[in-house]
Design goal:
Oligomer: single chain
Bound molecules: manganese (II) ion
CATH class: Alpha Beta
Number of domains: 1
CATH architecture: 2-Layer Sandwich
Structural class: alpha+beta
Mean pLDDT: 97
Strand content: 25-35%
Shape: globular
Number of strands: 10
Low-confidence stretches: none
Distance between the termini: 18 Å
CATH superfamily: Imidazole glycerol phosphate dehydratase, domain 1
CATH topology: Ribosomal Protein S5, domain 2
Order of helices and strands: EEEHEHEEEEEHEH
Number of helices: 4
Length: 196
């Protein structure tokens, strides 16, 4: 049973291709034109042990907003597709990841219902290269809406903007990996409702 997702999404603003294999080894091929975002998607694949391709050509002459958002939407849709009927998955995960002075705590339920709770330190540096740091929440919102998961991401403390964002992606990667893994004792869809 291969658990793969593939989404192509083209609008007047962006053209996105995402491919994901949940049972991969962390092979990543990412290019969005936004350097720091590529670095974050690289974390997601590597620490999630997903094989992940993200190719985005967006209207960067305006700014990076559409490029970042549409990539996250396609990624969420591909992740949802790869999960299939969710038979045998662990479903829940809770992961904390530090990056030097910053800490991210991520809790996920691959529930079939989109819900995001997100807190991070205020007064962060506004930009990391061409990455607008207010986009982190928008990425998570976009991913959650399409992946149809409940996701809680908290950064109780942190100082450096690069660290604050990066620890969130690392913790998200690990949480998605553990929640989507196949539990050898779980042959069914892990819900008393019988569907997720
Ligand atoms: Mn880094």
């Amino acid at each position: 049973m291969s658990r793969v997702g593939r989404v192509e999404r083209t609008t007047k603003e962006t053209s996105v291709l995402v491919e994901i294999d949940l049972d991969g080894t962390g092979k990543v091929d990412v290019s969005t034109g936004v350097g720091f975002y590529d670095h974050m998607l690289d974390q997601l694949g590597r620490h999630g042990l997903f094989d992940l391709t993200v190719k985005t050509e967006g209207d960067l002459h305006i700014d990076s907003h559409h490029t970042i958002e549409d990539s996250a939407l396609a990624l969420g849709a591909a992740f949802r597709q790869a999960l299939g009927d969710k038979r045998g998955i662990v479903r829940f995960a809770n992961v904390s990841v530090p990056l030097d002075e910053s800490l991210a705590q991520v809790t996920v339920d691959l529930s079939g219902r989109p819900y995001l709770v997100h807190t991070e330190p205020e007064n962060m540096a506004p930009m990391i290269g061409s990455y607008d740091t207010t986009m982190t929440r928008h990425i998570l919102e976009s991913f959650v809406a399409q992946a149809q998961i409940a996701l809680h991401v908290h950064v109780p403390y942190g100082r450096n903007a690069h660290h604050i964002v990066e620890c969130q992606f690392k913790a998200l990667a690990r949480a998605l990996r553990y929640a989507s893994e196949i539990d050898p004792r779980q042959g069914e869809i892990p819900s008393t409702k019988g569907a997720l």
